[in-house]
Amino acid sequence: MGDLLKFAESMRMSKKLDKVSLGQGQGKKAEELLMNGMEKGQWVLLQNCHLATSWMPTLEQIVENFHPETIKKEFRMWLTSMPSPSFPVAVLQNSVKMTNEPPMGLRANLTRSFFGFKEDDLGHRTKPNDFKRMLFAQCLFHGVIQERRKFGSLGFNIPYEFNDSDRAVCVLQLRKFMETYDKIPFDVLVFLTGEINYGG
């Protein structure tokens, strides 16, 4: 998701990107966004398609009725989904498919984390050195947690694919707490990161 938002920004489409998280009752809104996007040449992001199994036939009909003459050339439809047997094959066949897999290995994971940051993300007004150390610790922890997926649900009740948004939330909390308090609240950060964001 974050990569798509960055891409939209680089293509000057961030203000023309409409998104909806599919689920119960969101099909009508998704249809409206798609029609509006085709008409105005906007980007439309439909998230969590695997949760809207009953709406997938409607999506298939919409895609089959795409005609280049009636759609503005700037229009793009982006879909996110977990693997699902209910996902329409026709949509997959007419699409460019991308997967966003976590990197293999701790070094690759750390490298990806740091390449994803802008220069502003790495700085801190009052505690720049402490912030960089804590940021490295957050990214290392995230990398270790992602590497745990090799072992299945060993040590976890439910196997869960942690992703970049989990790390991003932790970094936002880290920045907020370091700006709010004079002394770094280690206990609070450890609890938020380990127990709530990654342990919940």
Record the SSE blueprint.
Blueprint: H1 2-10, E1 17-21, H2 27-40, E2 43-47, H3 56-64, E3 76-79, H4 89-93, H5 106-115, H6 119-122, H7 128-147, H8 164-180, H9 186-197
Q: Residue ranges: pLDDT <50 for 5 or more in a row?
A: none
Q: In percent, how helical is the residue content?
A: 40-55%
Our measurement of the CA-to-CA distance between the termini, rounded to an integer number of angstroms, reads: 22 Å
From N to C, what is the helix and strand string? HEHEHEHHHHHH
Structure description:
The chain is mainly α and 200 residues long. Helices cover 50% and strands 7% of the residues. The chain contains 9 helices and 3 strands; from the N terminus they run H-E-H-E-H-E-H-H-H-H-H-H. The chain has helices at 2-10, 27-40, 56-64, 89-93, 106-115, 119-122, 128-147, 164-180, 186-197, and strands spanning 17-21, 43-47, 76-79. The protein has a 3-stranded parallel sheet, with helices on one face. Helix 2 links the parallel strand 1 (17-21) and strand 2 (43-47). Helix 8 (164-180) packs antiparallel against helix 9.
In short:
It contains 9 helices and 3 strands; from the N terminus they run αβαβαβαααααα. With 200 residues, it is mostly helical. It is elongated, with a radius of gyration of 20 Å.
Q: Descriptors for this entry?
A:
single chain; 200 residues; mainly alpha; 9 helices; 7% strand
